[in-house]
Design goal:
Blueprint (H helix, E strand, L loop, with lengths): L21 H7 L7 E6 L2 E6 L10 H9 L22
Antiparallel strand pairs: 1-2
Length: about 90
């Protein structure tokens, strides 16, 4: 069984960014939001896809916990309760 060889050329911007070419993304099976890892060893670079993880962003889980625990939030409702005495209907 032979593996197809994919080689693409891309440019690095002034900010040090690049676009991963479509053929490479397809070969790795990654799309929008997908994560890849670069490994540099003995002057060569390899790229591989990382497994998808629902909470891959280290800031996401604490942010979601903060939203869940915010003061005045009523269980089962997606909005904060109005302050007491504000005259807003409950």
């Amino acid at each position: 069984m032979s593996r197809a060889v994919v080689e693409e050329i891309c440019t690095i911007t002034a900010k040090g960014q690049t676009t991963v070419p479509r053929a490479v993304r397809q070969a790795l099976g990654v799309g929008y939001g997908g994560r890849i890892a670069f490994r540099v060893k003995e002057g060569r670079v390899t790229v591989h896809a990382l497994p998808e993880d629902e909470h891959a962003d280290p800031a996401l889980a604490p942010f979601l916990a903060l939203l869940e625990a915010r003061p005045g939030r009523q269980a089962g409702r997606g909005r904060a309760a109005p302050p007491a005495g504000s005259g807003a209907p409950s």
